[in-house]
Amino acid sequence: MRKTLLLLLTFVSCSAVAQPRNSKNKAIYLEDISWPTAQKLLTPDAVVVIPLGAGSKEHSPHLPLATDYLQAEAYAKEIALQRNVIITPVVSYGFYPAFLKYPGSTSINFATATNTVVQIVRSLAAYGPKRFYIINIGVSTTPTLQTAAKTLAEEGILLYYSRYDRPGFVNAEQPFRTKTYSGHADELESSNMLTIRPDLVDMRKAVNDSSMMGKSGNMTPVPVEGGNLNTSGVNGYAALATPEKGRKSMAAFAKELIREVDSVSTCALPKMQDRSAEYTLYEGKYVNQSGKEMVFYQKTVNSILRGMGRIPETFFHCIKTPQIIFLP
Fold it and tell me: Which of 90, 149, 261, 287 is the most exposed place for a label (fewest CB within 10 A)?
C-alpha cells in the first residue's frame, strides 16, 4: 500500500510539469526548456505571460478547488496557439481572504502575494525581458497586482494584467450570460469548467444562489459574526451552465487577453526611477529593540549582477538597491 501511494504521489507531482504540448503552439513554455535555451529566448524583446489562478480555493460543491488554476492554464494554452510569447508555470497562490471559511481554500497575505509577483518578474527581468502580462483569474488579486505593477514600473519593467471589470472583458462575456447577476462559481465559470474539465464538474450539485446580491465582504458556509452566510459558496446562477456557453465565452475572453498581450508587446516601457538620493537619507548604523546593531547602506546592482555571470550588458545601469546587514 505504501509503495502504491508513493508511486501515485510521484505521478501527481510529475504530471504538473511533464505535460504534452500542442504541436501547433507558437509560444514557449518556460518549464519545458533548459537554462541554455532560456538564455537565448529571454531577450529584451520577449513578452512573458504569467498565468495566475488559485490552485485550491472554494468554488461551490459542484466545482473543484482548482477551478481558477484550470482556467488560467486553459487561457494560457489559447495564447500559446496564437502568439510567440514565453509562458511561465501557473502561479497557484495569491490573495484570496474572502473564501478562507470554506475548507480547502488557501490564501497568502497581501504583502506576500504582491512580493511573490514582484520577485518572479524581477527574476526573469534580470535575464532580459521587460514586458510581462498576467492572466489574472481573480478579483481580490487585482490590488496586489496594481501594487506590484507600480513597484516594477519604477524599475523600468512593464507589468500589465487582466481584470474582470475592464470594459473589454465585461463586453466579451456579457452576451453569454443568461442572468446579468453573477460573481463566483456562477453560470459562466461553471460553463468554463464544463468545457475545460467536465470530469471534475458535478452539475447535480449546482445551485442558483443570489444571496450575496447587494452585499460585500466575506462569504461563510456557517454563521460567523461579520460574515455573509452562503452555504453553497455560489454567487450567481450556476445551474444554468452549459458547455456551449463555456466554449463561446472562453473564446471571447481569450480574444481580449490576446489583444492586451499585443498591446504589452508594443507599448512604451515605463521610465526607471533613480531613488538612490532618497535612500541616502536612511544610510547609517541602527540598533533594534534587542540591542542588535544594523548597518543600512546602498550597493550598486552592477556589482551584484556581474558576479552572476549571465546577465546581458543591456541590463546594467546605475540604480542602487538598499541592503541591510546584521553585524556579528
Answer: 287
